[in-house]
């Protein structure tokens, strides 16, 4: 391994964790979600707060 | 005369006409016909036919069966032929189930979970591990057996073809879903896990440890999740014990230091006993502190001849230190509890227990200490600052207790918003919603509604109306209806839709009753913890060999549904998010199903309830089949999932306020459980006020149970927690990129929470 390569070895292939809620439960990574739930998560839109809430 | 036949697997074996005779006789018996000479005549006719047509090559089994059918009909045995055909179809079904079972096991054994949807059916099971695969193989085997042998042909067809979904079908014959575990009752006098007896806990640390064990043990007796409805009330007893001990110890140490002695413990114990005898009071956090401390310092003055001010000072210091000790111990206990629930395993080691805790309404100083510290421990996260996946926290919101300024636990409600805005928990359950408030009796925590984190809820009780409580009860089983399919089949005709819905409701209710028969005929020894330790309501009145039938009736049989939005679109052209007219139509449908449940409850005195199904595996199952059947119907089958229960579709643009208003009325109707979500953008931890305004909006709109989703990302390399787009805001790397150890070292000076990487750095 060259000095250059050795210099940047921390975190190679380490993914960001993205925690999401699935039927009430949290799941630490979406790798384990089934295909339908992945598609649903992908489609989720944000809800704006421009509203009459107190 | 033929001598050989070819079996299904290709093997050639000797022909035996006796087998044909036996099958025909069986069919005759099933058809209620007793003329056995008829069977012999048909057998002879079949043999003749075979002799004429199969001189060259032996016949195949299927061909022989075709001939039997033909001869039965030709000779006028129509009813027998029908029975014979049914018998054949059933054998085929079982054979196919076996073949598909082997295929499924093959997939579980060989395919990477990332490539196999079967292995990701439940996101909590790691299908790539040995124990996860073993669990999945068991599941596949149980499902094949249950479908072939336990369902009626009508139920099997409806399940197989996706008219209905029987949840946790692998456990069909084995157990029930879930329970709200009353830990106050369970810990009283100690309990047994089946592997050893645990004495009644004596400190907050042991209370917390035992709470985790209780969840784990009960999870092994049931197929669903486990919840504690009274986490604050239960743990408060542990805090009280810890404080009492700490007060005694700190006072002892103080006296020993002051007197320069070594053994004042017995004297202090005696003093506290005397005070208790004289005043009836014991050392308690805050409660009656002044009065009690005065009585103690008076006794000290008397006993040791210490000046009054000095004695008062010693007591004051002891109390302050005991307070600090109890607080610190409680934090550590809560931290340990959360760590435990995220790392412990159950069910052959394949799962982390699905766990939930409800809290927020205990206003005692001890209860408040518990609530504050469980929130703080959750806020801090796990060892590297990771967000805790378990337990699901459910904060009970109640006016007069914690909702408004001036309420005793208002500060804790505020804190809960801050924590949830960062960590996604707690979720919120609203005790003031009319359908929850009707059960609420002040001072009786068991009448406060509690929920399983996923949404399952149990309150009403037609079996025993004097026990409309959450403790010790839960769901027995639930089955969901494919609502969009009924709408598609109805072809825009409302009347036809409701006829079909009626039929489906009957089918599901009867199937739930059939399953109940299996569950109810179990004995206490089949549920060693749930029933054996008295966790389930009234099970403490049963002996180990007793049938659980009667006590199980405290539980619920729930009818669920999916895809109200797609149903409305299929029937009328658009969904309830789009117009008030459709909202009325949607409410009509759900009200109709609820009325059905209420009617069946009255008829049977069993708790039939309506569930807004938490569809994980189900979200894709129905629509996959419906796409094949009906093709792509815009707004109905054009995605990969049906919309959850009564939700406004996740892809539909709507404000948080409107979404809450639309969904709230459905909460009142779905008495088996419900949840509404709001999706917020950006890092809500920077805008807790906005977060809280959504919670308040839910409360005021009459939502029963709700939670707020927002992105929570973490970079495991530099430990940053928050929203991460393409680039990590702290260390600047992209997904999967490496950074230099020098840069990491530099960042560490600034952010001490950066994890260390053994063997890399």
Protein model, in words:
The complex is a heterodimer of chains A (54) and B (761). Chain A is α+β, with helices and mostly antiparallel strands and 54 residues long. Chain A has helices spanning 3-7, 35-43; strands at 17-22, 25-27. Chain A has a two-stranded antiparallel sheet. The longest helix of chain A is centred in the last third of the chain and has 9 residues, at 35-43. Mean pLDDT of chain A is 74; it is low at 1-5. Chain B has 761 residues and is of the alpha/beta class. Among the domains of chain B are: 4-88, no CATH class; 99-166, no CATH class; 189-215 and 229-352, no CATH class; 713-750, no CATH class. Chain B has 24 helices and 17 strands. In chain B, strands 4-7-8-9-10-15-14 form a 7-stranded mixed sheet. In chain B, helix 13 (365-380) links the parallel strand 8 (355-359) and strand 9 (392-397). In chain B, helix 8 (204-219) runs parallel beside helix 12, helix 9 (231-259) crosses helix 10 (265-279) and helix 22 packs parallel to helix 23. The model of chain B has no long low-confidence stretch (mean pLDDT 93). Chains A and B meet through strand 1, strand 2 and helix 2 of A and helix 21, helix 22, strand 14, helix 23 and strand 16 of B. Strand 1 (17-22) of chain A pairs antiparallel with strand 16 of chain B, so a sheet runs across the interface.
Rounded to an integer in angstroms, the radius of gyration calculated over CA atoms of chain B is 32 Å
Number of helices of chain A: 2
**Can you give the mean pLDDT of chain B?**
93
Question: Structural class, judged by helices and strands of chain B?
Answer: alpha/beta
Helix residue percentage of chain B: 40-55%
**Poorly predicted runs of chain B:** none
Overall shape of chain A: extended
């Amino acid at each position: 391994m060259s000095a250059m390569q050795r210099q940047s070895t921390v975190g190679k292939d380490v993914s960001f964790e993205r925690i999401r809620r699935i039927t009430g439960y949290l799941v630490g990574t979406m790798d384990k979600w089934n295909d339908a739930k992945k598609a649903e998560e992908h489609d989720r839109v944000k809800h704006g707060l421009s509203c009459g809430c107190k | 005369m033929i001598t050989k036949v070819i079996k299904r697997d290709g093997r050639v074996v000797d022909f035996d006409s006796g087998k044909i005779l036996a099958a025909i006789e069986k069919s005759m018996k099933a058809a209620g016909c007793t003329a056995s000479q008829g069977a012999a005549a048909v057998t002879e006719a079949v043999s003749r036919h075979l002799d004429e047509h199969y001189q060259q090559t032996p016949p195949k089994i299927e061909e022989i069966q075709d001939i039997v059918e033909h001869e039965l009909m030709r000779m006028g045995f129509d009813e027998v032929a029908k029975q014979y055909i049914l018998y054949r179809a059933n054998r085929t079904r079982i054979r196919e189930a076996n073949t598909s079972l082997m295929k499924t096991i093959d997939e579980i054994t060989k395919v990477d979970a990332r490539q196999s949807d079967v292995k990701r059916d439940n996101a909590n099971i790691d299908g790539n591990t040995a124990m996860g695969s073993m669990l999945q193989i068991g599941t596949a085997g149980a499902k094949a057996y249950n479908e072939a042998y336990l369902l009626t042909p009508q139920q099997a067809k409806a399940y197989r073809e996706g008219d209905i979904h029987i949840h946790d079908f692998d456990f069909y014959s084995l157990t029930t879903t879930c329970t709200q575990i009353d830990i106050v009752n369970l810990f009283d006098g100690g309990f047994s896990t089946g592997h050893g007896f645990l004495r009644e806990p004596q400190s907050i640390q042991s209370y917390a440890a035992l709470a985790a064990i209780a969840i784990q043990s009960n999870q092994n007796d049931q197929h669903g999740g486990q919840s504690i409805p009274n986490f604050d009330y239960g743990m408060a007893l542990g805090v009280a014990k810890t404080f009492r001990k700490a007060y005694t110890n700190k006072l002892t140490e103080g006296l020993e230091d002051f007197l320069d002695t070594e053994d004042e413990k017995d004297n202090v114990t005696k003093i506290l006993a005397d005070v208790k005898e004289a005043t009836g009071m014991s050392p308690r956090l805050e409660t009656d502190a002044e009065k009690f401390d005065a009585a103690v310092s008076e006794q000290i003055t008397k006993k040791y001849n210490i000046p009054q001010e000095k004695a008062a000072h010693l007591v004051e210091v002891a109390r302050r230190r005991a307070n600090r000790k109890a607080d610190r111990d409680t934090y550590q206990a809560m931290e340990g509890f959360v760590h435990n629930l995220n790392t412990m395993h159950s069910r052959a080691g394949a799962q982390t227990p699905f766990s939930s805790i409800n809290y927020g309404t205990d206003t005692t100083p001890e209860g408040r200490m518990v609530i504050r510290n469980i929130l703080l421990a959750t806020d801090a996260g796990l060892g590297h600052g990771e967000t805790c996946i378990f337990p699901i926290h459910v904060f009970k919101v109640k006016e007069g207790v914690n909702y408004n300024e001036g309420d005793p636990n208002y500060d804790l409600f505020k804190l809960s918003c801050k924590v949830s805005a960062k960590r996604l928990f707690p979720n919120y359950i609203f005790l003031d919603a009319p359908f929850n408030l009707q059960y609420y009796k002040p001072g009786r925590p068991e009448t406060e509604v509690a929920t399983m984190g996923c949404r399952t809820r149990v309150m009403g009780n037609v079996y025993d109306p004097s026990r409309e409580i959450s403790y010790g009860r839960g769901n027995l089983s639930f089955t969901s209806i494919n609502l969009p399919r009924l709408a598609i089949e109805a072809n825009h005709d409302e009347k036809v839709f409701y006829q079909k819905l009626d039929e489906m409701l009957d089918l599901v209710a009867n199937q739930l009753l059939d399953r109940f028969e299996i569950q109810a005929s179990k004995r206490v020894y089949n549920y060693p913890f749930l029933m054996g330790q008295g966790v389930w309501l009234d099970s403490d009145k049963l002996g180990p060999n007793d049938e659980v039938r009667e006590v199980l009736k405290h539980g619920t049989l729930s009818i669920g549904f999916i895809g109200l939005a797609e149903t409305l679109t299929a029937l009328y052209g658009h969904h309830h998010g789009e117009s008030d007219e459709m909202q009325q139509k949607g409410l009509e449908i759900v009200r109709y199903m609820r009325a059905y449940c209420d009617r069946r409850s009255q008829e049977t005195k069993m708790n039939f309830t309506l569930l807004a199904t938490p569809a994980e595996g189900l979200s894709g199952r129905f629509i996959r089949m419906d796409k094949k059947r009906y093709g792509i119907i815009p707004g109905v089958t054009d995605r990969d999932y049906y919309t959850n229960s009564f939700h406004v579709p996740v892809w539909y643009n709507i404000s948080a306020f409107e979404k809450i208003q639309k969904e709230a009325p459905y909460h009142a109707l779905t008495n088996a459980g419900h949840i509404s979500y709001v999706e917020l953008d950006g890092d809500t931890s920077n805008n807790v006020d906005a977060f809280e305004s959504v919670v308040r909006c839910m409360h005021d709109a009459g939502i029963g149970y709700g939670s707020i989703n927002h992105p929570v990302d973490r970079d495991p390399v530099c430990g940053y927690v928050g929203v991460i787009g393409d680039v990590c805001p702290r260390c600047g790397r992209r997904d999967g990129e490496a950074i230099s150890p020098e840069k990491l070292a530099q960042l560490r000076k600034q952010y001490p929470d950066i994890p260390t990487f053994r063997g890399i750095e």
